[in-house]
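Let us practice reading a record.
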Amino acid sequence: MCHDWGVFGKISSPSLETETVHGGHPVDPVTGGIVPPIHTSTTYARDADYRLIGDYLYGRHGLPSYRPVEDLAARLDGGADALLFASGLAGFSAVVETVAPGGRIVAPRVMYYGAQQWLRRLDSLGRIDLTLFDQQMPHALEEAVTGRDTELVWIETPVNPTWDVIDIAGAARAAHGAGGRLAVDSTAAPLTTRPIDLGADLTFHSATKFYNGHSDVGGGIVIAANSDGQWEQILDVRKHQGGVMGAFEAWLLLRGMRTLYLRVDRASESAMTLARHFEDDPRVVAVLYPGLESHPGHHIARAQMTRGFGAMLSIRVAGGHDAARAVASSTEVFVPATSLGGVESLIEHRAAVEPPESVVPDDLLRLSIGIEPVDDLIADLEMALDAGRR
């Protein structure tokens, strides 16, 4: 359960932006420090009656340094509680672990490949029954769950790396109608989308990405709409599997979150500018960005993305695989690297890192837009696209 840290007691309803800037917990009640301390202890003492002195028992059960991060994440997504994990996949795995043996999971055909590979593995072992739906086809999700009990529907929106948009409210109705729950990976749309407000049961973020924002901490956050029995199972999985983050990493993550609004707003604005600049460029087959009116999911994006359209886009390069690789190898401001959501802009030829079963086009370059001046990013990509045609 979220703690009341007594923040801004004379202001009835400070904005989430203000709470985030202050880390959700601006003053240490013991020392008065405006930066929270790092609690590195992994075990906690008992009193003379052998009762725990505080709320903590052992590191795998959770650390004091987690609580400010978890409380702030829960408030940002409108949830009842949040749990911090050592990585995004650790959080994802904890959610999947709550599905009963042989239980059915429905997920998009295009999604973060690490998560899909794990689902495929569990399906091959008979641990789950996996169904993948085509996220580009209208009503594909509804058809995938019709007439069959489904324990978990897992979606991303926008979908990585094609940035298709899935209707969260519609997905929630489909999942609940099939007797299951909806979990939404909102890694690519922090602040811009609040899945719980649209009916999701769980929201997930790879905190490695935008939440941290500095490419120096790995982590995952799962947020629950309600602290119910499934939520207790997820907490139990974290406790027993040990997918917990270190105290210093949690402190770094909170520090990164304090600039989340500034970074996301700046990067989203630049992404829109880039998308519009290259939309009709003859060197580009397509610009995939939900903020463009030409995007097939734009009308859904406008309805559920309430603070810009995010900082992620992809371009499909004219000339195919070889031209795309040449562009990705020619940039000087964009760094050719995996991951996303940092202050520096990244470019990645996705076909080079996707698994063999991936359906991602081999001419696709994924762009994670950082906070550099957008004119520098445009000039860099212009230069690289010219190099790709040689």
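A brief commentary: The mean pLDDT is 93.
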